[in-house]
């Protein structure tokens, strides 16, 4: 049977698009993993890279598997496919397993070159404050020193009386690039994590000329984790349930489909201005339900427990002290 030429062209176009999407979605090594950084209690200087055997399960010690491997996830990403392929082999070996109860999970990325943040990037969050939908990404930053572990304390600074929560999907750059095309952008992503963009609203809206940096960058104002979930382990990062709970009560509940500028668009935009390098962290914005826009406003106080959850990635739990 002869297939019409037009049908052949459509079929070839479909196959080509599918191959392009598959290439774009593929991570650095094409492996689905959960990378963590950990130390043993009382030995915080001995940071190790591990691979979780599953969410919340035991961890394979990568350096014990191969002593040539680095001690941080950022350095592992700098090795490119070589590092991630080694992590994949370590996970498959089932050897050098450390009991979860015997380790302390750290942030999966520490001391990145950049922490890039995006404001007003959820449609429902814009509606919450009667704000127009941005026409281009609103970019600001945190200092890397704000990053803290997935179960570490959030420290209330004496300089602020209006500290607020913001659950966010974070992603981490795995491949260096500048002027990255949107269609190539996902190949530069190592994976995803959960973040809390803790914010001092008095400094954000009333102080420092209403510049956002100081309000966002107090020590401990960027809990991150619990793992770096590689891009191949996340079915669709833009269709994930995202929630924040304070003392067990749900205060934010939405879906990452509400994001205005998605991962690839953000990479293409920011890489116009700066070179992105392995380990750079992006925080992609928060959904509605933050404390500042409640009536009356609600802020964090000592003793509160904040839990940020994203489907397929996990949760981070931080006590306010």
TrEMBL record:
The keyword Metal-binding applies. It comes from the Eukaryota. Pfam families: FAA_hydrolase. One of its GO terms (molecular function) is metal ion binding. Residues 114-321 form the Fumarylacetoacetase-like C-terminal domain. InterPro entries: FAH, Fumarylacetoacetase-like_C, Fumarylacetoacetase_C_sf. GO terms for biological process: oxaloacetate metabolic process. Keywords: Metal-binding. Belongs to the FAH family. This is Fumarylacetoacetate hydrolase domain containing 2A. The lineage of its organism: Eukaryota, Metazoa, Chordata, Craniata, Vertebrata.
């Amino acid at each position: 049977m002869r297939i019409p030429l037009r049908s052949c062209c459509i079929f070839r176009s479909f196959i080509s698009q599918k191959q392009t999407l598959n290439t774009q979605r593929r991570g650095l090594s094409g492996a689905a993993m959960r990378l963590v950084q950990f130390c043993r209690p009382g030995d915080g200087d001995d940071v190790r890279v591990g691979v979780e055997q599953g969410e919340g399960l035991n961890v394979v010690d990568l350096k014990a598997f191969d002593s040539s491997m680095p001690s941080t996830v950022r350095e592992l990403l700098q090795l490119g496919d070589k590092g991630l392929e080694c992590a994949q082999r370590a996970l498959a070996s089932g050897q050098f397993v450390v009991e979860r109860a015997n380790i302390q999970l750290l942030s999966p990325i520490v001391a990145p070159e950049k922490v890039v943040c995006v404001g007003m990037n959820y449609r429902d969050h814009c509606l919450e404050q009667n704000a127009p939908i941005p026409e281009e990404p609103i970019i600001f930053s945190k200092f890397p020193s704000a990053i803290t572990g997935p179960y570490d304390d959030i420290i209330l600074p004496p300089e602020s009386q209006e500290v607020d929560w913001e659950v966010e999907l974070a992603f981490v750059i795995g491949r260096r690039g500048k002027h990255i095309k949107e269609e190539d952008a996902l190949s530069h992503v190592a994976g995803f994590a959960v973040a809390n963009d803790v914010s001092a609203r008095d400094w954000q809206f009333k102080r420092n000329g209403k510049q956002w940096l100081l309000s966002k960058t107090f020590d401990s104002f960027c809990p991150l984790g619990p793992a770096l979930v590689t891009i191949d382990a996340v079915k669709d990062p833009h269709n994930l349930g995202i929630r924040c709970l304070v003392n067990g009560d749900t205060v934010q509940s939405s879906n990452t489909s509400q994001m205005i500028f998605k991962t690839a668009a953000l990479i293409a935009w920011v890489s116009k201005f700066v070179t992105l390098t392995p380990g750079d962290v992006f925080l992609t914005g928060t959904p509605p339900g933050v404390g500042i826009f409640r009536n009356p406003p609600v802020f964090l106080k000592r003793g509160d427990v904040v839990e940020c959850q994203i489907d397929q990635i996990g949760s981070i739990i931080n006590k306010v002290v």
